[in-house]
Amino acid sequence: MLGGISELAEIASIRAHDFNVEIVGVFEPRRSRDTFVGRPVWNCITAEPLVDATIFTTLTSSNETY
Prior knowledge:
Elements: E1 2-3, H1 7-16, E2 26-27, E3 35-36, E4 39-42, E5 55-56, H2 62-65
Parallel strand pairs: 1-2, 1-5, 2-4
Antiparallel strand pairs: 3-4
């Protein structure tokens, strides 16, 4: 899962294919859309599926996303 919608999240999504990493969605507390780069966006931590890791890709509010 990615933590934050940003240009960095777009790059991570593209590069994930090179490393056999599956990105299941994006956590964005200030959600402004339902999908991002073809994956679901969640704004509530309890709505997310169980994941192995979250890569923080927010560029402005990392504390809020955390």
